[in-house]
Write a structure and sequence with these properties.
By secondary structure, the chain is an alpha/beta fold. It is about 50% helix and about 25% strand. The strands form two sheets. A four-stranded mixed β-sheet has the order 3-2-6-7. Strands 1-4-5 form a three-stranded mixed β-sheet. A hairpin with a 2-residue loop joins strand 4 and strand 5. Helix 3 packs across helix 6.
């Protein structure tokens, strides 16, 4: 019986040692020093749309350059055991996603220099659309227009 208890304790400690604490407040402070916003990408391990967006959009070299120019990227797999701290929230990634009323994946949240959510995107977006949304948020166009108007103005200029 004692061997079983020792085994369970060992396995539990091993699993806990791999869990990380993601302190969004600290990351946001660092981002502010760099004049960057946060891009938080929520996804699930076995989600087909998530895998597709990671492969086609998130991992695309052009998108990565665009993100790294104006954002600090935070990957949030809700199936991981990591904990998150953000303002008054402390808990699992899954519960962190739920605190933003996220129930569909993939989802992306953009947090501005003031550590407040500026834009919330739900669902898969291909490289072109995701690039436009990144531009919309990075230029802070959300302050003066909605995304549809931004896209229309962008198309009109081209």
């Amino acid at each position: 019986m004692n061997l079983i208890k020792i085994f369970i304790l060992t396995v539990s400690l091993h699993l806990i040692s791999y869990a990380e604490l993601i302190n969004i407040d600290n990351i946001a402070n660092e981002a502010k020093k760099q004049n960057k916003q946060l891009l938080i990408f929520f996804h699930m391990t076995r989600c087909g749309s998530c895998k597709k967006m990671i492969k086609n959009s998130i991992e695309n070299l052009e998108i990565r350059k665009q993100i790294s120019k104006d954002f600090i990227y935070i990957d949030m797999n809700i199936n991981n055991d990591d904990s998150v701290v953000y303002k008054n929230f402390k808990g699992s990634i899954h519960n962190f996603a739920r605190s933003f009323d996220i129930h569909l994946y993939p989802s992306t949240i953009f947090i501005g220099l003031d550590n407040e959510v500026k834009y919330h995107l739900v669902g898969y977006r291909d490289k072109e659309v995701f690039s436009t949304i990144i531009e919309y948020v990075s230029t802070k166009s959300y302050k003066t227009m909605d995304l549809e108007l931004f896209i229309n103005e962008k198309e009109f200029k081209n």
